[in-house]
Amino acid sequence: MYDVAIIGGGPGGYAAALYAHNFGLKVALVEKERVGGTCLIRGCIPAKTWLQAAHVFSVVKKSSEFGVNSSEPTVDWKVALDRKNNVVNGLVNGLSGLLKARDVDVINGYGSLKNRGVEVALSDGGTQHIEADNIILATGSVPRSIPGYEIDGERIVTSDHALDWEEQPHRVAVVGGGVIGCEFASLLSDFGSEVHIFEALDQLLPGMDPEAVKPLERALRKKKVKINTSTMVGPPELADGGVTINYGDGKSVEVDVVLMAVGRGPVTDNVGLEDTAAVVDRGFVEVDLATMQTAQEKLFAVGDIVAATPQLAHAGFAEGISAITFIATGEAAPVDYRAIPLVVYTHPEVAQVGMTEAQAAANGIDVVATSHGMRGVGRAIIQGEVGGTVKVVHETDGPIVGASVAGPGAGEMIHELMYTVAWEALPAEAAAYIHAHPTISEAIGETLLSASGRSLH
Ligand code: NAI
Fold it and tell me: Label partner for 18 (CA 20 to 30 A): which of 52, 150, 200, 301?
């Protein structure tokens, strides 16, 4: 008899399993593949490894601007792919070792809810019934497509396939200009591929601050990426030479491969939810956000399958921790969703925390926004990366409710603004602290000074 059985070994599930150790809980973790989930195996980690390779390539390409001459760099795709696999394998092995060290029983097979326990179709044959006081469902998500775009893994692909491309594709259409679409457009264009993005809404990264998205759009355009916003695509035409995409008013383009990046859907079919009291809405599981418990007592859901919370690995970690804390202590320890950062690892990076001006307005909150560009920031000039901006959004005469950063290191810098949002700091309180000079983070200091009514530069 286990205290907790977890179905799914991605960030939500494995964080719950690891954290349970703090309370001495006996845990079974059921996983049909290797542990790590989308994030480690076919998401965050491999994608960022490719982005890093693309970044290194683009830095070497422009090294002569810094007086460092080298021969024209070339891409050895196979080496980059091997490095990606090594990074992934190293982290998966490390995680397996950590789970073992924390006495988590990892059971390899397909798990589903049955008779208040978990029935596992074991990967090496047979079934095993696991009895547990509590069950956490953490089955994650898979890429979606749209009608007419049947995923064949070769010419119409998702990020699952793109991360394992054995050769560089030369002409790529990316359908969906959200996080995945922009990250792939960024890395492929750094490597010199021809890229066309088709986004249904009126800007890339819909929902993010338009001012923060602009430096990315500019950088992509500079790399000759064709950005088609407010654009729907017609059905693809597959021929020997490639795929033709029809779009807009009679326009078309031929590419070698189409990458679908139109969102990810929850994996909640065939896991036995229909025999429980849990409420499922369009595949997403509804939970009490204070405890992550579903409408069925002692059945919890965390990660990408949870309704109305972000599909982010770090949100999954936090939800796993929240569920385990409630199971172990009976006390609710809710995730603070107000201050979860979102980082898009494009070049330049775009990051955001809390509310944008538009979201504040939609919530009836009166706000003031203050921004500061990177053009005058010494370290940004030194690095040759001045395309960026910081924006801080605060209530009129009140605390900071949101912020965004675009530019070099945005994904790291956003965390200082995370604390200002979480701790409801006033701009003047946050501006009282001194940033080291020269740093890119000084742009945050400058923005906070201006937001508190006294600008410096
Ligand atoms: P997304 O929701 O970020 O973007 C999908 C985009 O496709 C949207 O902009 C949407 O307007 C557009 N779209 C939908 N249907 C369309 C159509 N028929 N034609 C043209 N455009 C269409 O989803 P994405 O990029 O697939 O990512 C899935 C999830 O994974 C997201 O929740 C994302 O936050 C997460 N993720 C997070 C990353 C990070 O934190 N760096 C990296 C990659 C994914």
Answer: 52
Alpha carbon distance 318, 302 (integer Å) = 9
Helix ranges (DSSP H) in 332-409: 357-362, 378-383
Residue 241 clears pLDDT 90, i.e. is over it: no
Query: Which of 143, 141, 175 lies closest to 158 in space, CA to CA?
Result: 143
Last residue of a domain, one of 337, 363, 381: 337
Residue 193 has a pLDDT of 98
Q: What is the pLDDT of residues 77-122, one digit of tens each?
A: 999 999 999 999 999 999 999 999 999 999 999 999 999 899 999 9
Q: Tell me how far apart the alpha carbons of residues 108 and 35 are, in angstroms, rounded to a whole number.
A: 9
Q: Is 386 in the pocket of ligand 1 (CB under 6 A)?
A: no
Does ligand 1 have an atom closer than 6 angstroms to the CB of 311? yes
CA 177 / ligand 1 centre spacing (Å): 7
The residue whose CB lies within 8 Å of the most ligand 1 atoms, and thus the one to mutate among 141, 179, 205, is 179
Please work out whether the CB of residue 146 comes within 6 Å of at least one atom of ligand 1.
Answer: yes
Q: What is the mean pLDDT of residues 152-164?
A: 98
Task: Point out the catalytic residue in the list 196, 314, 437, 457.
Answer: 437
Question: What φ, ψ does residue 354 adopt, rounded to 5°?
Answer: 70, -150
456, part of any domain: no
Q: At what angle do helices 77-101 and 44-61 cross, to 10 degrees?
A: 140
Q: Is residue 272 part of a domain?
A: yes
Give CB contacts under 8 A, 24+ apart, made by 38-42: 38/10, 38/140, 38/141, 38/304, 38/313, 39/10, 39/11, 39/313, 39/316, 40/10, 40/11, 40/88, 40/91, 40/92, 40/95, 41/88, 41/92, 42/159, 42/160, 42/163
**Total domains, the chain:** 3
Same domain assignment for residues 363 and 434: yes
Give per-residue burial for 102-122: e unless 16+ CB within 10 Å, then b.
Answer: eebebbbbbbbbeeebbbbee
Q: Please state whether the peptide bond connecting residue 348 to the residue before it is cis, i.e. omega within 30 degrees of 0.
A: yes
Distances, alpha carbon 91 to alpha carbons 162, 166, 216, 244, in Å: 20, 22, 30, 39
Report yes or no: 234 and 200 within 8 Å, Cβ to Cβ: no
CATH number of the domain encompassing residue 388: 3.30.390.30
CA–CA separation, 328 and 85 (whole Å): 37
Would you call 435 a catalytic residue per the annotation? no
Query: Which of residues 337, 362, 377 is at a domain's end?
Result: 337
CATH of residue 101's domain is 3.50.50.60
First to last CA, the chain: 64
Q: Are 330 and 293 in contact (CB under 8 A)?
A: no
